[in-house]
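Meet our chain:
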Amino acid sequence: MKRMGMIFRAKANKALDRAEDPRETLDYSYQKQLELLQKVRRGVADVATSRKRLELQLNQLRGQSDKLEDQGKKALALGREDLAREALTRRAGLQQQVTDLETQHQTLQGEEEKLTLAAQRLQAKVDAFRTRKETIKATYSAAQAQTRIGEAFSGISEEMGDVGMAIQRAEDRTQELQARSGAIDELLASGALDDVTGTSKDSLTAELDRVSGDAGVELELERMKAELAGGSTERQALEGGAGGADQATQQDPRFDKQQ
């Protein structure tokens, strides 16, 4: 069971890896950072609002304290020491409230400065993450496109290989058919095969044609020999005629008398 559980988790993890898109994960992380930054900004705004409220209360209490001080001075000037004492007593109570509010104001002001600095740092990190996120997304998209192009080229190469094999088979088949056709033509011409269409000749006809062809060749050869022999005879006759004329001239007595 433990092994099956491990196998199941491995297969599930592999399926999740295939289903996961890093770009979506980056966008989700960026969205979460923006939400966190928004919370920090709201915190800064809340602290600043509280600080501003304390400042208003402080200004109001300080105004009341100043007013009581003026009333005490006027009462003392009129000889009403009791009223002056009452005014100063109230003013002392207000001063204690002012002191407490000033302490809270300083605390809130410190918290506001810390949160503002944290918000600025977080903003810088979010901006840097956004830049890196867009760079990674662009790189991932480019790599994904290159992978798809490579896979497409691979598919084309495989298809072209299949086409090449088909062409080679077609050429081999064509050569085989051409060789077969040529062999049949030679067999038909030699008479080894009968032409069912009647266009080829039987063995007797082929033999007669061959004999006739040989006879024609023999006749042509004899004619050429005769021509050659006839030419030689004429030359001999001409040469013989010229020699006989010279001998007759020498033996003719008239020839001698004339000389």
